[in-house]
Amino acid sequence: MSGCIFCGIVAGTAPATKVYEDAALCAFLDIRPITRGHTLVIPKEHATNLDDLDHELGARIFTLGHRIAKGMRRSDLGADGANLLLNDGKSAFQTVHHVHLHVVPRRRGDLFTFARGFVLRRPHEPTATAAAIRAGLDRLDTEEKGTPA
Ligand code: 5GP
Ligand code: ZN
């Protein structure tokens, strides 16, 4: 949709540090991360909010968010948990009106870092951070395929 920043990221006309992409979905680092690795999962086709989103696509967005959270646990970010959050509508603090699922990596004892990140929202080496998450996703793939006999 014209004028939508996330549609611009999908089209490649707006910059973003991508973590994952397939025919239907895209995941990229939040420009103002709460913690290092804070990722947004979006449908490539514009949907303004949950009312506008196909159910199956919604399930695929969650599945990818789930995989990214698992990849983060296997990455060098040191995550051992994650907050998955979707703000639906202005009253729920949605500020970018293209559906997106936040995946915010967490680690034990990070409350101070999390609270500071919530206020400062500063990026942390985006290229290296995205590479670390992709490496975690590769480890997850390898683990799921199992060790050949
Ligand atoms: P919301 O409050 O709508 O759930 O969150 C929108 C998120 O999108 C925020 O965390 C914000 O930092 C992020 N964001 C806004 N504009 C851009 C952008 O141009 N690029 C990226 N990568 N993230 C953005
Ligand atoms: Zn859009």
Please explain how this structure is put together.
The protein has 4 helices and 5 strands. With 149 residues, it is of the alpha+beta class. It has a 5-stranded antiparallel beta sheet. Helix 2 packs across helix 4. It is globular and about 40 Å long. It starts with a helix and ends with a helix. The mean pLDDT is 97. The structure holds guanosine-5'-monophosphate (5GP) and zinc ion.
Q: Which labels suit this protein?
A:
149 residues; alpha+beta; 5-stranded antiparallel sheet; 4 helices; 17% strand; binds guanosine-5'-monophosphate; binds zinc ion
Q: What ligands does this structure carry?
A: guanosine-5'-monophosphate, zinc ion
What is the CA-atom radius of gyration, in angstroms?
A: 15 Å
Q: Please state the average pLDDT score.
A: 97
DSSP helical segment count: 4
> What strand line-up does the widest sheet have?
1-2-3-5-4
| Shape category | globular
Q: Can you write the helix and strand succession as a string? A: HEEEHEEHH
Task: Please report which band the strand proportion falls in: under 5%, 5-15%, 15-25%, 25-35%, 35-45% or over 45%.
Answer: 15-25%
Range of helix content: 25-40%
Number of DSSP E strands: 5
Question: What are the segments in which pLDDT stays under 50 over at least 5 consecutive residues?
Answer: none
Largest sheet descriptor: 5 strands, antiparallel
Termini distance? 49 Å
Query: In terms of structural class, how would the helical and strand content be classed?
Result: alpha+beta
